[in-house]
Structures are given as structure tokens and as C-alpha cells.
Amino acid sequence: MSNEIINVWNDMNGRLTNFVNGKVKDSELAKDIVQDVFLKAFSKIDTLKNKEKLVPWIYQITRNEITSHFRKIKFNTSSKEVEAEELSNETLTSELTHCLNPFINSLPEKYKEAIILADIKNIPQKEIAKRLSISYSGVKSRVQRGREMLKSNYEECCAISTDVYGDVLDYKVKK
Q: Sorted alphabetically, which Gene3D superfamilies does this protein's record hold (predicted)?
């Protein structure tokens, strides 16, 4: 397993450093935190029950280390400010969003239009039904089918690991 953690280190070091730097806004501190993450991962690898979850596990350790860092320095902002900042920071999910346009453009027109209106422009589906002069259930079906088509196309391209909330923990382009 130690070889696997070394391979993961080589694979993920840059992405984790960018991820942490987006949170702490200090590149040297980010490198230190990432080093702590891998030290912790290496020393606790025997506690990992499902070895296939190594990468998501490392991201969880990373998030915990970031939280621990802010606790240590007694971060002086309210939890609402921290949450807002976390939401605005770039994550793996937002890294992948730039890849979506070609997939959306490849959809049949009626599904493409439904996805753009519902998921990109955030227009309520009832409003979309009025705009397109179709039933509400018709819009729901188009959006759902469009999402399924996008997911299918995306999964052909990339292997994506998500957490229980649907946030991307890791991705790799399939070759």
C-alpha cells in the first residue's frame, strides 16, 4: 500500500496544493498543509477500510487539515463568512464545469435548451414550461433526460468520484 500512496502523492500533489491554496490563500502554507496531509495519510493508511476510496479519503483528510489550520489561528470571521468564502472558492466541481459546454452542445436541441435554462440560467421549471409552451411534466422529463445524457457522456470521458452531496472529490480523464 505504501507504493500506492507514493503514486497517489505524485498524482495528486499539484491538485491538492491548488485546492488548499484556494482555501488558505498562501502558497507556502498550502504546501505545508499538503505535506501534513500525506504524512497523516501515510501513517494512518492501515485505518482505511476500503482501499478503493483512497483518493476521497485523502481529500477528507485535506479538508480536516484546512479546518484544523483555521482553528489553530483562531480565525476571526463568522461561520457564515467562512461558508460563503468556501462556496465561492474553486473546487474540483468547478474545475470540471468548463468541460461541460461541449457536452451540452452535443445534446439534441430540446434537451440542450432545457438544461441551459434549468441548470445554467437557474430558471424554475414552471417558468421554462411557460416559455417553451409545454407542460411542466414535459419540462421535468426533458431536464431529467438531458442530465442523464450529460452524465452518460461525461462518464465515457472521465472517471469521477463524488461525496454524498455530489461534490467532486477526484476525477481522471479516461484514456
A: 1.10.1740.10, Winged helix-like DNA-binding domain superfamily/Winged helix DNA-binding domain
